[in-house]
């Protein structure tokens, strides 16, 4: 069993950062994916539940049976090495320099680069436990510390109600020289099979959750594929495209650096480019230098069309289109009208051409390529072939999930 090194850090406030999204279940073949996923998940969960209720010790054989449908396997030697990793206990919340330094030591300084491992939240009064894992521990911790998460399952509502100060945090940092990111899932699974972790709703890890959202880098005609990143994190590491930037450009039909289109799905007819990664980076870097010189890198002009029936503006303004030199200035205008909208939300509305409160926001024509209409037709055609992963979400109890500050969502944890 693990040894635990206790370190107390006395703090008073929350450490805030952006939330991370919840994972979805990876897609299986389109013809029968829903029933297949349901049977696989239910079977693994049933095996885990039966083992927990039996009271028997967790063995290598039990873990591998439970992980069979996740395409994960662990050897006896690997499991023994994982169980030797010591956990470090931290008092919550964290606000002092000493506490932040310890957190950085265990999880990494950046949410984009850091360490993989397992974490546990232990309720101080009841001893109830929750276990999880991540290939980027810092990003996962920021998710909990920020407090902006769906109130689903057992743990998150309790954390939101009682606050970080009601819990102790224990982190098992994995040495990247000895372990892979998937090893964190194995260690998490070992603990999920222990009945003490009674704040976990699901008892089987999801191996697909660390894969992220793929990004495909094409030319402006979608006929050449330059690069396929398995996640936005990989895109940042390999091509220096920041995750916030990729959010803006992916599936927007808006050219990135005037030469590329970023899509979340493959175009089957595209040919793979034979240029090297170094050459691709060189092309992108040259374009970045040019846009810096022109002063156009951070400002993308947008237009805001005011529809009939709009209640935020005067009658004289209805039917007109306002032009802004950036998304930020457009958001400031809307805020002045009393309509507050997040940047990510407005970017999404632009991508899907959604009308909101009788406004329609779109990128200015001068930012679009000359063959924009043709590109749009190509992209829209292949969007029809894209698998809708939302249909793969399983809601076993068919109960709504409450999201803080919002409406009810019907989905699985």
UniProtKB/TrEMBL annotation:
GO molecular function: endonuclease activity
Pfam family, one: GIY-YIG
Taxonomy, superkingdom: Eukaryota
Keyword terms: Endonuclease, Hydrolase, Nuclease
InterPro entries, per database record: GIY-YIG_endonuc, GIY-YIG_endonuc_sf
Keyword Nuclease: yes
Keyword Hydrolase among UniProt keywords: yes
Protein's name in the database: GIY endonuclease n1 TaxGibberella zeae PH-1 RepIDA5J044_GIBZE
GIY-YIG domain segment(s): 114-201
């Amino acid at each position: 069993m693990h040894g635990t090194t206790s370190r107390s850090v006395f703090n008073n406030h929350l450490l805030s950062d952006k939330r991370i999204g919840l994972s979805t279940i990876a897609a299986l073949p389109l013809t029968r994916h829903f029933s297949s996923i349901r049977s696989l998940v239910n079977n693994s969960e049933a095996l885990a539940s039966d083992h927990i209720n039996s009271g028997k010790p967790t063995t290598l054989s039990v873990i591998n049976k439970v992980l069979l449908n996740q395409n994960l396997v662990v050897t006896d030697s690997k499991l023994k090495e994982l169980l030797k990793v010591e956990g470090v206990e931290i008092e919550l919340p964290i606000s002092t320099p000493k506490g932040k330094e310890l957190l950085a030591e265990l999880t990494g300084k950046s949410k984009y680069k850091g360490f993989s491992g397992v974490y546990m939240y232990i309720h101080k009064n009841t001893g109830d436990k929750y276990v999880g894992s991540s290939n980027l521990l810092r990003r996962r911790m920021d998710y909990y510390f920020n407090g902006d998460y769906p109130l689903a399952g057992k743990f998150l509502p309790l954390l939101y109600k009682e606050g970080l100060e009601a819990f102790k945090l224990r982190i098992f940092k994995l040495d990247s020289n000895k372990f892979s990111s998937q090893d964190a899932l194995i260690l998490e699974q070992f603990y999920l099979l222990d009945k003490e972790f009674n704040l976990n709703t699901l008892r089987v890890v999801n191996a697909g959750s660390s894969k992220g959202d793929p990004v495909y880098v094409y030319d402006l005609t979608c006929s050449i594929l330059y690069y396929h990143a398995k996640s936005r994190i990989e895109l940042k590491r390999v091509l220096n495209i920041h995750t916030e930037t990729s959010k803006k450009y992916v599936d927007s039909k808006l050219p990135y650096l005037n030469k590329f289109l970023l899509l979340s799905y493959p175009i089957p007819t595209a040919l793979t480019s034979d240029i090297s990664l170094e050459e691709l980076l060189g092309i992108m870097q040259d374009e970045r230098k040019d846009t810096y010189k022109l002063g156009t890198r951070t400002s993308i002009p947008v237009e805001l069309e005011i529809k009939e029936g709009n209640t935020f503006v005067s009658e004289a303004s209805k039917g007109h289109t306002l032009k802004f030199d950036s998304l930020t200035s457009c958001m400031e205008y809307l805020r002045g009208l009393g309509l507050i909208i997040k940047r990510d939300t407005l970017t999404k509305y632009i991508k899907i051409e959604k009308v909101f409160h009788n406004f329609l926001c779109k990128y200015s024509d001068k930012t679009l390529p000359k063959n924009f209409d043709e590109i749009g037709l190509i992209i829209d055609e292949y969007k029809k072939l894209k698998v809708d992963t939302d249909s793969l979400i399983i809601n076993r109890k068919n109960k709504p999930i409450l999201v803080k500050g919002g409406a009810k969502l019907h989905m699985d944890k």
